[in-house]
Design a protein that fits this description.
Layout (H helix, E strand, L loop, with lengths): L30 E3 L8 H14 L4 E5 L6 H11 L4 E6 L9 E6 L5
Parallel strand pairs: 1-2
Antiparallel strand pairs: 2-4, 3-4
Helix pairs in contact: 1-2
């Protein structure tokens, strides 16, 4: 779960590499790097993050999922297809990550 607006997530990691003990606060910026999250956390993190972005008045954000096998990209895209606050999504331009990132256009929070 994402709460608030900023905290260094590395401060919350236990020395043994255990999962976070408390919710992680992320800055509400125009890009979110999903590499820091366990795969099972990605859907809830993305959903909450996009809603916070909409509430902050953002119209476009970039989700960085990496290229790898494409599994994380597929999870993100499957989720985006079903979120009512998403207008559209596509691969980022090559200089912004190409198919390793997804640009998401958001509906206004009041609309």
């Amino acid at each position: 779960m994402i709460r608030g607006s900023n905290i260094a997530h590395s401060e919350m990691i236990e020395e043994a590499g255990e999962p976070f003990k408390e919710p992680v606060r992320l800055p509400i910026e125009d890009a979110l790097d999903l590499h820091a999250f366990a795969p099972k956390e990605v859907p809830s993190v993305v959903e909450e993050y996009l809603e916070l972005c909409r509430q902050a008045g953002m119209s476009e954000v970039r989700l960085i999922h990496g290229k790898g096998t494409g599994a994380q990209r597929a999870v993100v895209r499957r989720l985006l297809r079903n979120l009512p606050g998403v207008l559209s999504f596509a691969d980022a331009p090559s200089q912004a990550g190409g198919w390793g990132a997804t640009l998401v256009r958001l509906k206004p929070a009041d609309g």
